[in-house]
Amino acid sequence: MSALIRSGLVAACLMGSIVAAPAVESGTALADGPHPVGFELVQTADPARAFPSLEGAGFRDRPMRIYLWYPAREAGSAPLTIGDFVRMAADDFRLSDGPAAGGASLPVPLARGLDDGERAALMARPLAARLGAPAAAGEFPLLVMGQGLYYESPLSQVYLAEHMASRGYVVATCPLLGTQYRLVNLSVEDLETEIRDMEFAIAAARSRPGVHPRRLGVIGYDLGGMAGLVLTMRNPSVEAFLSLDAGILSPHHSGLPGSLPEYREDRFTVPWMHMMQARFIAPSTDTAKTRELYNRKIYGDSWLVSVPTDSHGQFSSYARFGIRAAVPGYWGPVADDAVALHDGICRLAGTFFDAALKGDPAAAEALKSAAAGAAGTPGTVDWKKGLPPPPSASTLMHRLIEGGPAAARAAMEQQRAADPPGPLPGTDELRWLGYHCLLWWGRESEALDIFRLNVSLYPDSADAHAALGDALGVLGRVDEAVAALRKALALKPDMPRVARLLESLTQSEEKKTTP
Length: 515
Hints:
Serine Threonine Protein Phosphatase 5, Tetratricopeptide repeat, elongated, 515 residues
């Protein structure tokens, strides 16, 4: 099956809804970049992951619906409407050929927060995106977006996605769907599933023409911010990360995202902007606790934006839907300036990526102005200048394997001496590599240098000295081996295997010298 299966049925349904939609002017259409916006919905499946089949026993490939916004060459057909994305949102979770569970088709905030007339007007509101519009010439940076709990459909971020596409980005995202059923739990398994869905969306988008092969940024809202953070840590090709009202600044009650094995703050070195409700990071609270990750981050510039709102929905498209009523489970009464505030959130996000991904000097200056309190900034912006990111431990290990100790030693010694010290391969990794070179890769001449490098970097590691002694013994350099093994036992006396090896080498030497 093709990796990308574009559904003619989806396109036909959307085109029908476009034609039927009346031409209604909108006072809340953001877009506001130089490019017209194109849109495509890609229906496909991930054959590497199974998902339960409702039509019969067994499993099927995991269903994937990838929403793609992109810079267009011309406006093309009639614009999509909010109603089109509401209908797509209903289809996002219709996981069988039958009707949606319970007959539900409207997102709860639209069903409970608007009356019939308001809802009809909203559904008819035109957006900037045009279905299937011809793509603009050139290659554009890719932004992959993770969705949040209770805001699982990309409908929740349609305005931000359009804004970024109008500024010259391709935006890819997919609905938030649990691992084996619709419900998303606050668990390692389901967070890993969202990360893998985002990775699938990256691969799908990069298979298209017009997507830059290297420029990659990540956006995460709510739970998508947790997923986006881990994705950024584990994928060195990510160059910038924006998190929106996500529980990542301080420990979350669920233990996420820190409980994922690949949560590694030493690998979080890219420019980062975190926008959050000001009440959670207000100066009157314990700053050390509310800003922990921001305070700990060393490499790459960081921006912390305290947004003056008490509504989680303010960071989503729902801020622009004219909902004034409180919606239990979502928000209380909505402020009158919700649209203007969301404008500021979207534009600051665009400025951040223009600086971080495109290297735009004007955008970099605009971020400095935002930190100084420039007009139009959606709240208070703290800016922390980060150190230039050093080579990662994995990069150094790769250099060591491919180029040998001579290619990596200087960089490792430099990172050890840096203030603060840079990331290094662990002593166990170096020891494991040394044994591979000594016993299994046929690179005995390099093995000894690797074991010695390990001892140089970790002089207090008994295991490092023991491995050096073991290797020296294998290579017949008994006197040096004995010295290394004695050093290991001096650091850690309770090493029976090392003691036996030392005794064996010593007795062997004594037999050689006995007449």
